[in-house]
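C-alpha cells incoming
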C-alpha cells in the first residue's frame, strides 16, 4: 500500500513540478505558492521525489522467490533461506507430485 502510494506520488509529482504552471494558466487559475516554490527549487524537489522512489522500492523488496506447481508450493526462499537449484526443484517435483522433470542440457527426465 505504501509502496503504491509512493510510486503514484512520483508519477504525479514530476509532471506537476515541470508542467503544473501550464495547467493552471490553461485553466485560468493562479499558480499556487507551493508549485512556485517547487519550480524555484527543482533539484531539491526532484531529489525528494527520487528519495520517495527509493523508499518505495525498498518497501516492495521482500526477497521472496517461490515456486508453485499445480497451485501447490514447491519451494520458498523465505522459508528455506536459499535459492533452489534445478536438481533440488526436480527432486521436489518428483517426490511430492510424481512429475518427471527434464533438466536443461539433458535428454532424459528424472527417475523415481
Amino acid at each position: 500500500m505504501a509502496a503504491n502510494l509512493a510510486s503514484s506520488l512520483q508519477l504525479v509529482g514530476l509532471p506537476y513540478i515541470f508542467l503544473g504552471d501550464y495547467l493552471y494558466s490553461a485553466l485560468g487559475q493562479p499558480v499556487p505558492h507551493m508549485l512556485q516554490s517547487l519550480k524555484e527549487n527543482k533539484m531539491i524537489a526532484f531529489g525528494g521525489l527520487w528519495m520517495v522512489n527509493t523508499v518505495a522500492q525498498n518497501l516492495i523488496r521482500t526477497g521472496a522467490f517461490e515456486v508453485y506447481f499445480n497451485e501447490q508450493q514447491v519451494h520458498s526462499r523465505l522459508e528455506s533461506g536459499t535459492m533452489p537449484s534445478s536438481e533440488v526443484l526436480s527432486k521436489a517435483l518428483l517426490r511430492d507430485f510424481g512429475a518427471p522433470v527434464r533438466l536443461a542440457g539433458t535428454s532424459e527426465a528424472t527417475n523415481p
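note: The chain has two domains: 2-60, 64-112.
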